[in-house]
Please model this.
Amino acid sequence: MYIAMNRFQIIKGYEDDFEQLWKNRESYLDEVEGFLGFNLIKSKTYKDYTLYASHSTWKSEEDFISWTKSGAFRKAHQGAGTNKHLYLGSPQFEGFNVVQ
Amino acid sequence: MYIAMNRFQIIKGYEDDFEQLWKNRESYLDEVEGFLGFNLIKSKTYKDYTLYASHSTWKSEEDFISWTKSGAFRKAHQGAGTNKHLYLGSPQFEGFNVVQ
Model:
């Protein structure tokens, strides 16, 4: 199993706007090969920002990589460059393979 | 749902030793109220270290907090101070509530 996380630092006060973006988003994930599940998750609020992450699980890293090269991925990320005012810095990607 | 992650920076070359620690560890988690699942997960290797995380899921943040105050938690973490030579810096805890 593989876990793909994208970490987002959301400027304080914009948390609701950020959550709304995800609520209204069409991910096109459900029919993607190897896709298991998705959650938007929220950690704590630091001095300048609140930490969020997208958290998706996949049968394998290969399935995830195939998705990132697909038309479904491009469709899901169109318009991702807008709403820059919500973010402190760029999202940070981290992928994890399950060891145990 | 709540996701508790502890991030570990493991000095290059000690990855197998670190994974072995987790294989041999008795977590006493299975009978803990609200516990859903546990994985040890491995991300990529940076210049000086490999990023790992423990990843556990819980019905609620309250269940997780109760566990950290329990005897089961103390038992699972006894000896956690040994093997310091594996780590670059201290583990970093991050907890996440599922928003969506």
